[in-house]
Write a structure and sequence with these properties.
Structural class: alpha/beta
Helix content: 40-55%
Radius of gyration: 22 Å
CATH topology: TIM Barrel
Order of helices and strands: HEHHEHEHEHEHEHEHHEHHHHHEHHH
Shape: globular
Strand content: 5-15%
């Protein structure tokens, strides 16, 4: 009996010790993850906080101040610090409704908001180049970068595109949810079989400027046309793998395989509806639903948005978890290569996030999952920011060469495409 009791006691001690060892191992991984973030800036490819500030506070930073804790949002500076974030591409998002007029004004207002937000915070530093991002990180700042979401913002004008570059814009998403006069979107009817001749010229002029071509939201035909035309790496600032979650917003494998010769990358989106297979099936027509509510409320975009939010609440979806995101990173790394994957969360632009990735403070836990899966420190550094910085540098050197070789394009859409179809 005494031996049995001792054995039982020993088993009890072992059982108690096992969780402690597991916890220590998790703590070791988290410490390793934080060291990696300290060495290499984690750059999030897409964050929609500026639109939230516009919608909820009229663009007034005193009413919704990112410097303070804002638990109703996914993002604030204290949580960016907690998440070891080294840089953020803030989205200057313009709804597709403005394709009918006023898109450039809204884009400029959002760019102005990002500049004001950056200037108001001692934690943020405006970054225009890859070197700027790394310099800000070394100095303990968070690099603040600007990307336009929606090519309708240039209002079919290459001159407007150049002026946006002058305001600090370093990528432009060619479309948002709707097909444009010069590019097909992933979630709308195709009218051009990809890019028109003017659309190809937009890509060339972005290359000449050093503005990254962002292919999130575009159709597979547009993806392939842009990859064929672009002399610099492209990015998908917030997309995931279609082979794992069959949603038109994701990137098919045949396109992933084209990234290696181009040098571009897919930055994995965190929205449950784009990464969880069941959720992707349920949300496949989400942009059609949004369009329907906008048609029902043609003069009240906020009412249309409320109706869409109600529809989402009535149609809950599986959230997925951190492993779900890591699966997408695994798949893209397998098909395209480890040099062609990054992170583009879509925080503050989505309504459902994987369990464990509820806000910007949680990035280190994704890093932990990658380490647990056997990613080396060097490979993790590529995923969290190194690949994007390499693409930025290549785009910068390509632009320097192209500016020596040719002047700014004076192309006009009417001349190149034989007339504009306007809805």
């Amino acid at each position: 009996m005494r031996h049995a009791a001792l054995a039982a006691a020993a088993l009890g001690v072992a059982a108690a010790a096992t969780p402690a060892r597991a916890q220590q191992s998790e703590a070791d991984l988290l410490a390793r993850a934080r060291r990696i973030h300290a060495q290499t800036p984690l750059v999030d490819g897409h964050n929609d906080l500026p639109w939230e500030i516009r919608e909820k506070a009229g663009g007034d930073l005193a009413r919704l101040d990112p410097r303070r804790s804002n638990p109703a949002q996914h993002t604030d500076i204290p949580r960016l610090r907690a998440g070891g974030v080294g840089g953020v591409f803030w989205a200057a998002y313009v709804p597709s409704d403005f394709a009918k007029g006023g898109a450039a004004r809204v884009a400029l207002e959002q760019i102005d908001l990002i500049h004001r937000m950056t200037a108001a915070s001692p934690d943020l530093r405006l970054a225009l180049t890859a070197d700027d991002v790394e310099r800000a990180h070394r100095e303990g700042k968070i690099a603040s970068l600007i990307g336009i979401e929606g090519g309708h913002s240039i209002e079919n004008s290459l001159g407007a595109l150049r002026q946006f570059y002058g305001t600090g814009v370093r990528y432009m998403t060619l479309t948002h949810a709707s097909t444009l006069d010069w590019a097909d979107a992933a979630t709308d009817s195709a009218r051009h079989d990809g890019l028109t001749r003017f659309g190809e010229e937009v890509v060339r002029e972005m290359n000449r400027l050093g503005m990254l071509v962002d292919l999130s939201h575009v159709s597979p035909a547009t993806m392939k046309d842009a990859l064929r035309v672009s002399a610099a790496p492209v990015i998908f600032s917030h997309s995931s793998a279609r082979a794992l979650a069959d949603h038109p917003r994701n990137v098919p494998d045949d396109v992933l395989r084209l990234l290696k010769p181009n040098g571009g990358l897919v930055m994995v989106n965190f929205y449950s509806g784009f990464v969880d297979p069941a959720a992707a099936a349920a949300m496949r027509n989400m942009f059609d639903v949004q369009r329907r509510f906008r048609e029902q409320h043609p003069n009240d975009p906020q009412a249309a948005q409320r109706a869409y939010r109600d529809w989402q609440r009535q149609n809950p979806i599986p959230r997925g978890n951190i492993a779900t995101i890591a699966d997408h990173i695994d798949h893209i790394a397998k098909v395209a290569g480890i040099d062609h994957v990054g992170i583009g969360s879509d925080y503050d632009g989505v309504t459902s996030l994987p369990v464990g990735l509820d806000d910007v403070s949680r990035f280190p836990y994704l890093t932990v999952e990658l380490l647990r899966r056997g990613y080396s420190d060097a490979d993790v550094r590529k995923v969290i920011g190194g690949n994007l910085l390499r693409a930025m540098r290549t785009a910068e050197t390509t632009a320097a060469r192209l500016q020596r070789e040719r002047p700014a394009s004076s192309a006009k859409i009417d001349e190149m495409d034989g007339g504009v179809v306007r809805r």
